[in-house]
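Regression check, calcium ion case 651:
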Amino acid sequence: MRTKLARILVLFLALSLLSACGSDNTTIQVEDVAPKAKLEGCSLYIKAVEGLPEDFIFGMDASQVPSLEASGVKYYDFDGAETDVFRILAQSGVNYIRVRVWNDPFDADGHGYGGGNCNIDTALEIGRRATKYGMKLLVDFHYSDFWADPGKQMVPKAWKDMDLDAKASALEQFTRESLQKLKQAGVNVGMVQVGNETNGAMCGETTWPNVVRLMSAGSKAVREVFPEAKVAVHFANPENGVYPDYARALRDNGLDYDVFGSSYYPYWHGSLENLTDSLKKIRLNFGKQVMVLETSYAWTGEDSDFSGNTISDESSVDQPYPYTQQGQVNSLRAVTQAVADAGGIGVCYWEGTWISVGGASREENQALWEKYGSGWASSYAAEYDPDDAGKWYGGCAVDNQSFFDSKGHVMEGLKAFNLIRWGNETELRVERIADASLRLTVGEPVVLPETAEAVLTDGSRKTVPVTWDADLSELQLPGDYEISGTAEGQTARLHLTVENVNLLSNPSFEDGVGTPWVVENLGGCPDLFPEQKAGDSRTGEWHWHFWSETADKVEFTLEQTPEGLETGTYDFTIYIMGGDCGAAEVYAYVKIDGTIVDTAPMEITAWNEWHPGTVSGVAYEAGQTMTVGIYVKAPNAGAWGKIDDASLSLR
Ligand code: CA
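Current build output:
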């Protein structure tokens, strides 16, 4: 009797297992809508990237979609019909959908932190819809309750008191259970990321052995649940040249993984040549597949949701392509070529479906962001991330980098995901006139350029005549002038700077040696020298750099003593930017005959936020010794900064 019952039980269990396995491909009715040939009807110029394998990954991170839809967003296809956005993506050549997964992006009362409130249930919904239209899912575990990136890798609330062993077990179990949910629903998982932009830190851990220990726990769970899926790691900042160090740390600590992926935002992450070179080295020297896991670019400089955007016409970042649909597609095409040149396996675009929630005011949108988590962060995130989300919570910072307009209508740029394979070489036309700049010193004749650079739809340039709308007599005084003009029927812009004669030598440190600047290292700062790095310079290639890993080392003066000055009234300015300085004391100063006669307090806030210090109206008589400089004292461990662009002028 017992035996018979046991047999029935075994049979029942076996049948349950069989039906569970069998359900993988039957619960979701797959509708194959992927384009089989070149899509028709696209006015954008696209040169084919030759030799892309058929399985080359063209991914789209669409994590925000469910929260946007809950907020009222609808998506419309190329015929103007309201359609499932995942269907539109598949029809346009997207073959992978990426989705971020946070452990628990909710407060104790169930209020979402925002950013789509993306947990495994969101991934499940997105995964079902991706699978339905024949696309694979790329699951991006952040192993945090909210955004993880190079600036923050916070441990989930529930794991914060765990030691490393306990955390590794919890992470493995969380990964396994999450993936099992996807598997049971029949979601076609192709790749799983163990961590997001984990530049040396993850899940609250900050040493490679600990980070890799946790990644290994995640990797083990992926191998177990989805043995066919690829395990990916993801880093940012290829421009820093650190990827070989990362890959070595992963290897030396024994991580089992397949894909080494990078973020590549053209306005932050260095040159395409460097991207190719970095990824190629990882592929060849470490035997890993490589790809770009995040990229995006703007199709307009305008914001559409009353929440400022990462890049805009006002932002100071590089603009390697115009902010137009053609510029956006040229960027995607160039990144694809760079990955192909590295022998990489794919490119994933970041949140090209994230658009405005559609309200007519910030207040209307704010209500939706708070209710549905459809902004980048809600006020409820403050409990977990007080310094960033708690201060800056709001809407979408990338609505101008989408492939849908602010009303949800797909734009033809989305077809690039298909057309990059085939090419779509439409007749070349002028896309925009490149901004020009001109620096003059007072007294020089003001001669505006007769030609401008036109940027064509393929990204190439040609020189064209330009006429400027400016009254030369009004451009004689020191100052910054924005001048508009016309070339090829389009608007041209010229930034003119008329400067006083700068009486300092090597004012921007461009000679690379630092002379005749004199540095006095009062605190024993270990890193204190001129540095060549255009991305960290206010102008030119060089600036003066300081950094100390340990506290209380950063204290120094940097000054120079110009010779041959005439009697008169002088103004001195110098710039600084930096971070992690703590309660810093910084000021510009002017000394006459060795005594400080005036100072100007300065501040250090964040990377790329340059602050001037200006000492003005210094009376000087020929024969005296004038010394101008900057004093910096920054007590915190890790204090760093950059000094650039000093000027001394006679009124
Ligand atoms: Ca916005």
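Comparison notes: Residues 303, 305, 307, 309, 395-397, 399 surround calcium ion (CB under 6 Å). Residues 508 and 645 are 5 Å apart (CA to CA). No diff flagged against the previous build.
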